[in-house]
Automatic annotation (TrEMBL):
Name the record gives this protein: Phosphatidic acid phosphatase type 2/haloperoxidase domain-containing protein
Lineage, highest ranks first: Eukaryota, Metazoa, Chordata, Craniata, Vertebrata
Organism: Takifugu bimaculatus
Region Disordered: start-end pairs: 90-120
TM regions (residue ranges): 7-27, 55-75
UniProt keyword terms in alphabetical order: Membrane, Transmembrane, Transmembrane helix
Length: 120
């Protein structure tokens, strides 16, 4: 069977499955009529008094904006890439991991990356 024939067969099987799945609903709808009950506008059991908004627009905006800022702040901190923790106990072994100042001498206009102001 060719590739095109297989695709047509699968489409026909899909359509058949949809009709078989819809068949019980169609039979029940045609054979039996659903129970109908009227709704009356003056029925006191479904009548509720009109109430205005329970939350003002200002309160809703303030809570939404505050929660969005807090969530974004904490989620971004959670996914922030951090350097690996050093578990070595010997300080001489840790020396190469420490942040060193830039060897370029600082000047008043530019400074260096770590704001190092001491002698180089």
């Amino acid at each position: 069977m060719t590739e095109q024939g297989k695709k047509l067969l699968l489409i026909a099987v899909d359509i058949l499955c949809v009709f078989v799945a819809a068949l019980p609903s169609a039979i029940l709808t045609l054979r039996f009529s659903p129970y109908q009950r009227g709704i009356y506008c003056d029925d006191q059991s479904i009548d509720y008094p009109y109430r205005r908004d329970t939350i003002s627009y200002g309160t809703m905006a303030a809570v939404t904006i505050t929660c969005s800022i807090v969530i974004v702040r904490h989620v971004s901190d959670f996914f922030k890439q951090r350097p690996p923790r050093c578990t070595l106990a010997d300080p001489e072994e840790n020396e190469h991991l420490e942040r060193k100042p830039n060897p370029q001498p600082p000047d008043a206009q530019h400074g260096n990356h770590y704001s190092y102001r001491g002698a180089v």
